[in-house]
Amino acid sequence: MPRAVKGVLVECDPSIKAIILKIDEDHHHAFIVEDLDEDHLVVKEAKLAELKERLEKILEKTQMMEKDDDSDPDQPG
């Protein structure tokens, strides 16, 4: 018998969506109910906060790596 799952429509750009899809895949599809198109997903309502947390951590790491790449050890400051 089919079961209903409460979901939240998430709109994001394709680069963020790719990260969300990777998070979902790494966690045995615990977050996404439906992949609608290149900008939209339906995410399990009960997992939305956890997904946001994981996404923020990944984005923070990415920003830190970009800062490290931007700094030139030969130039002060």
Automatic annotation (TrEMBL):
Q: Which PANTHER family match?
A: GENERAL TRANSCRIPTION FACTOR IIH SUBUNIT 5 (PTHR28580:SF1)
Matching Pfam families? Tfb5
Q: Where are the transmembrane segments?
A: none
Q: List the InterPro entries.
A: TFB5-like_sf, TFIIH_TTDA/Tfb5
Protein name stated in the entry: General transcription and DNA repair factor IIH subunit TFB5
Function, as annotated: In NER, TFIIH acts by opening DNA around the lesion to allow the excision of the damaged oligonucleotide and its replacement by a new DNA fragment. In transcription, TFIIH has an essential role in transcription initiation. When the pre-initiation complex (PIC) has been established, TFIIH is required for promoter opening and promoter escape. Component of the general transcription and DNA repair factor IIH (TFIIH) core complex, which is involved in general and transcription-coupled nucleotide excision repair (NER) of damaged DNA and, when complexed to TFIIK, in RNA transcription by RNA polymerase II. In NER, TFIIH acts by opening DNA around the lesion to allow the excision of the damaged oligonucleotide and its replacement by a new DNA fragment. In transcription, TFIIH has an essential role in transcription initiation.
Among SUPFAM superfamilies, the record links this protein to: TFB5-like
Q: Which organism is it from?
A: Morchella conica CCBAS932
Q: Where in the cell is it found?
A: Nucleus
Subunit and interaction comment: Component of the 7-subunit TFIIH core complex.
Chief subcellular location: nucleus
